[in-house]
Design a protein that fits this description.
The structure is a homotetramer. Chain A folds into 2 domains: about 5-215 and about 365-405, Rossmann fold (3-Layer(aba) Sandwich); about 220-360 and about 415-425, Phosphofructokinase domain (Rossmann fold, 3-Layer(aba) Sandwich). In chain A, about 35% of the residues lie in helices and about 15% in strands. Chain A contains 13 helices and 17 strands. In chain A, helix 2 packs across helix 11 (about 365-385) and helix 7 packs across helix 13. The two termini of chain A are about 40 Å apart. Chains in contact: A-B, A-C, A-D, B-C, B-D, C-D. The interface between A and B is large, with 68 and 68 residues. Chains A, B, C, D: It catalyses: beta-D-fructose 6-phosphate + ATP = beta-D-fructose 1,6-bisphosphate + ADP + H(+); beta-D-fructose 6-phosphate + diphosphate = beta-D-fructose 1,6-bisphosphate + phosphate + H(+).
């Protein structure tokens, strides 16, 4: 069966949760491992399956199981947060700690400082014990209470550390790289025959994890960006032929840029990595921009950080120490090119890069709700002995998915989707830029 | 076929939207009337349909149609907003006006002032013309640019007004009563053989419209409530055995109360209309509250306005002029009963009712995005000649649903759902109150 | 000399602060006890003093003294917060703790829980030690970290407690009653020949402490009220002849109501305790309100809680247990009277009471700056052995004033002042209401 | 007499304001030209004047005069906004328009688009008429409703334009350069014997106008910066030896940086133009920073844009077209130098420049109040025929000051002041950096 989550073994302990197994008693029911949700809800796909007898793709419903793999009173969990900041990390940490403590009464929860570095004893970061009292207010703050770091550490070393510290469950909050990392840790654990559950909570402010509805922190990101765009409009309209360029996050996917523009309809152009726009010539960006300036005397441009990489082709490729191509800064580049192009009319350009301001903000209410629920589901799955899975929301329902299924590729904006069309409708920018 | 939307007649005009009909050209495709989405995505239901040959319930996908019923250059639309305030009304008005003007280039859009009253010439409110320039900034403000009113007017009179003013499309933004009203208008139009499309955009801050994922303004409502709950916690913890009671909206359904509590986990108790809790005795609310005060010396209680009506049974029933039972104020009642009960220990109670503050706030970013998209879809459906439908989101997709399907009953919180369970997990309140 | 602050005795210890005594070295100078600032800066008063030889009223400049009365390493301080909540209390607590610890390195700071109750051992509240680590984040939250209570305790008992716990300095954060209380404590200490400094930090959200520019939390109060007024305007304009009544704090003085109305110029009427307005008849409020409704079809009314007490004269006087006259709720009363009066035209009234929401909010930036500086000055004065004084800002400068001078009477809005005139200019309400 | 404001001539028209001339009638009194306020309120200065017979420096009290120079029904006013954005500009515009219209009922108010450019007909910007209806909501938005531009235009041309359009009063909202410009316009008008009043409303987000308490928008600037600093702390503490550098506005004066740091005490270092700090060596910044990292593992640095220019001495001086030295970007420079210095320990640096985000924000409540009152006073002074003055607040009172007095030099932070000392107390940064 596709999308089948792994289990550490038979679940023999009774859950301490006082839940029900029958409908109609006003008490939530334990979720059974067999409960599944259809992924593709188009009637077309239903008919296709009906006709061909093909199994529809299904996802495992998340929630508390009646039988646990781990005996709570002897269970030790650990939490690690990796990669860049994203609103809501502290809410997830808090939710995990509270759920482990109050729902299951587990023995101990360890905080791993500074990302995967914290699982490498050589870094000397030590551990911090996570108690309800320590985490009860952290949801009010952005950032990560545990600290973070980028990049990986030796998988063997990290597994050694987990075993040495008798960790039974590792919750890893992080993006694509982190999830691949924790899956590798899970694989190594399996190889060693150890019984440690590893769980990923997808964190990507870019919202580019495949299959899932949205990642936590994403709603906050464009909520924080939104008044910045409103005021960038003030900068643009405050000068004759004023132009504001706002660079927003989005290395491979333009979800933040597009959603922020939809949320604040003073935006006139959204440029995203998924678009192969050109600057010069007919149907180029300059042409569209000039038309806008002519009619309205100002323009607001939102550009995702990964947009326009096609413009740099042919220029000298700069690589970093690891040999990766270093992306050029599209915001700065755009500002330069626009300045150079518009010599025939007076213009004023303001360039704004609020990335760090956005990613370090506290979660808004919508994300706070989401983070708590993600954390609870992560804990329920882990206690039942599931491993190498992520918890997420698909078609508005919480599910468990094998990590490997969501890390195969990045989620991107489909330029033919209703979502992107709504952005075009809101901004009024021409199709041809796409 | 179930959930089949009505059409005014054959759509013969070409849409002015420059869209595509093929995949792969990076241009959004016109949506075909035949496109459908499965409503129930449980595997169980799939298997049931497979076995029995029963048709699964499907919803019509919304979006721009290639053929229009109305000729844009001769089309006049009208917009009316009814009932209580809700964040996002202005965003919807703005979206409708912009879409009609810029996407379809229709002749004129009329604003109907003060709800259905505005369709009764006797009230003397007149009309206001809605132009892009007039509505371009209104999304930044709460309330309704058009004014609103409660209650209905004679359907015949309203239809007379629409016909007299040569209105082709009526967009009604409102709740359960408004939607029933606009459907009645549509029915009367049909009887008269007129060709006027009537469209409902469901507005209910309580989020209690059946079938749909959420109504616009709902996210904002608990986003605005959330810091109020945070600070109500300050009031509670600022006094010895301090108790804060916050009454939130929710006449029949406790979604705002429950979501706000989830978003701000300093809440200790959530009381909603769906719960049949009692105050006194074992497993009563006072017992749970006292236990909380004993251990923490303060408590934060969120109560939905419609909660606890069972407590008033046996008391004198007060009816209003129309004979409806007047709900007692549960917040004030709770404050009184708690004061009377806790004579054996010193307590301090603060009662907070932020309802008007919440409902008159501007839409947050998430709702802003939602409102724009709802408005666009409403316009696309109307231009295609659909009538007596609502536009909404179900399973995270935009759909058109016959009005009659969503007004059959109210949506309520299922006490056995994962959502309510997450509230119990967050607050720590006992199951037995439910 | 008037306004002379008391000292516990000669200051013999060198301040550990590395400050200067000469100008020009870019290092702040210790402040000398003799430094004074003129209170009345009108030229008229200057000429009067010149002519009559009268001493102008002067205030003592606050700041760090070169010599201390207390030996830091043997000093114990205590902090108590009394009365209702007000934004900024936690900032003041934090500032005091940080200043005592980092600037002076004192031995210990004690937190007294739940106001003056905490100085009565019979209440059994105990003490909490205040360390930098414990208070470092509290400024981000409203309320009081220490808890509060209303009313007094036996002065003798409180002094016993201070002496028994070897407290050298007591910082009391509170309003008029609290300040009188701490002055009484200081008097009792003097009688007993003890050497304990008592310091008041005036806290009154109403801004009604005499002589001083403004009390902390006041700026935040109308900053929080401001968007509520903006949205109350949405409620008013959202209905035909819609009226929003917002009750704001202000028992004896209308500063919050007046400032909030100035900050949000959608307000049409401000009613404050200082005004002797009437409702009926020519030059009455109803007449002015009707005129407003006629021309604009909506009205926003801000009323201070203590306004309109003259309207209740002749009605039955209700007294509380202590024999004090219980104020009637002017907001509810106004709503009732307006409803009863306007039977000849349709109106809709919305009544909003955001008091608890305002007073429990965290301090805004302006107040945060103010609170830190107040706390630092309070600490400098206390360490120098001053006692029975408040720290505050007068004519934009920080000063020390004897408590007795600021508790003689309440500060009120002068109806002939430029400030009130600016309110009339902003609202457009007629003079005659005053 | 020093600080004597100029008048266009005798004021012969009765003010239409229904004010009083006697105390005690609860109606605001007209202000007399002779009313003065002492500038220096130190007792020391008082004694000095007493002894020497020297006149104390006095400022003219602002407010409505009983006699007007201009006949309202024949008066045309114009408003121009120049230079960079600053929160509150729209509030001032709104206040001026409302006061001219509702208080004085003047004939017409002209909006001059895009700063002084708008007074040069060659630019072709035209005029816009300012009515209450047009400006009633603009206070809710940042930016300038009129547009702005930098730099001057020919004074003769601008005076020609004013005369040609029969403008009687010109209100110029702008900084140092704008004020000098409007004074030059006033001088030219005088030379020509024309009777046009020119009024300056000082606008400088840097708060660097001499003599005055604070300029409008300043409070908002650090209010907007404050949560950015809070979250920058999350960035710093989220990485091992994480460093956040936030560049704030302040070309010559560090008021924003210093106040923002005071408002958000998570800041550890504030670097301002007034400080002659060095980076290397003993008592250098690197030494202090390393000490901080050693003890806390993270640091938040706020740097004013004009800080550290002494560090660039000896480097190649870059001049712009006008021959002015172009300031190097201290934020980028600091980031580079810190990276280069700290090779012996791992560090992570985040650089944040929120300048455009801050200056384009709407005014907060405190500034809203201030802007309205400034606008009213500006109008009262102009109608009375005063010219070449600014309106402002000194020692917490509104006054009129000759433009030439406030443009002599910039206001700077006095490193020996209590204000700067409070910043050092809050951050804990060493004196020696100054």
């Amino acid at each position: 069966m596709k999308f089948q989550n792994r289990n550490l073994g038979p679940a023999n302990y009774e859950s301490p949760l006082q839940l029900s197994t029958v409908r109609g008693d006003n008490i939530f029911n334990f979720v059974d491992d067999s409960e599944r949700l259809i992924f593709d809800l188009s009637r077309e796909n239903y008919d296709h399956c009906l006709k061909t007898g093909e199994e529809p793709l299904c996802l495992e419903k998340s929630g508390p199981r009646q039988k646990l793999f781990f005996d709570p009173k002897n269970t030790t969990a650990a939490v690690v947060t990796c990669g860049g900041l994203c609103p809501g990390i502290n809410n997830v940490i808090r939710g995990i700690v509270m759920a482990l403590h109050y729902f299951y009464g587990i023995k101990k929860t360890i905080g791993v400082p500074y990302g995967y570095e914290g699982l490498n004893p050589e870094m000397g970061h030590g551990f911090v014990e996570l108690t309800p009292d320590k985490v009860k207010d952290i949801h009010q703050f952005g950032g990560t209470f545990l600290g973070s770091s980028r990049g990986g550490q030796s998988v063997a070393t990290m597994v050694d550390t987990l075993i040495a510290n008798e960790v039974d469950i590792l919750f890893a909050i992080g993006g694509d790289g982190t999830l691949k990392g924790v899956d590798a840790i899970g694989e190594e654990i399996e190889k060693r025959g150890a019984k440690i559950s590893v769980v990923g909570v997808p964190k990507t402010i870019d919202n580019d994890i495949d299959l899932i509805d949205k990642s936590f922190g994403f709603e906050t990101s464009f909520d924080v960006a939104s008044p910045i765009l409103r005021d960038a409009h003030n900068e643009a309209s405050g000068a004759y032929n004023g132009i504001s360029i706002i660079k927003l996050m989005g290395r491979d996917s333009g979800f933040i840029a597009a959603s922020a523009a939809l949320a604040m309809p003073t935006v006139n152009f959204v440029l995203i990595p998924e678009m192969a726009f050109k600057l010069e010539g007919p149907h180029g960006f300059f042409e569209a921009l000039e038309k806008r300036l002519e009619s309205k005397k100002h323009a607001v441009i939102v550009v995702a950080e990964g947009a326009g990489q096609q413009l740099f082709e042919g220029t000298d490729v700069v690589k970093d120490a690891s040999g990766n191509i270093k992306h050029q800064d599209i915001g700065v580049y755009l500002k330069k090119r626009i300045s150079e192009h518009f010599t025939h009319i007076p213009i004023t350009i303001k360039y704004i890069d609020p990335s760090y301001i956005i990613r370090s903000a506290p979660a808004n209410s919508s994300d706070s709700v989401y983070c708590s629920r993600l954390a609870y589901h992560a804990v329920h799955g882990a206690m039942a002995g599931k491993t190498r899975f992520v918890v997420s929301k698909v078609n508005n329902r919480f599910v468990y998915i094998p990590i490997t299924e969501v890390t195969k590729k990045r989620k991107k904006i489909d330029l033919e989707s209703e979502f992107w069309f709504s952005v075009l409708q809101s901004t009024g920018q021409p199709f041809f830029l796409g």
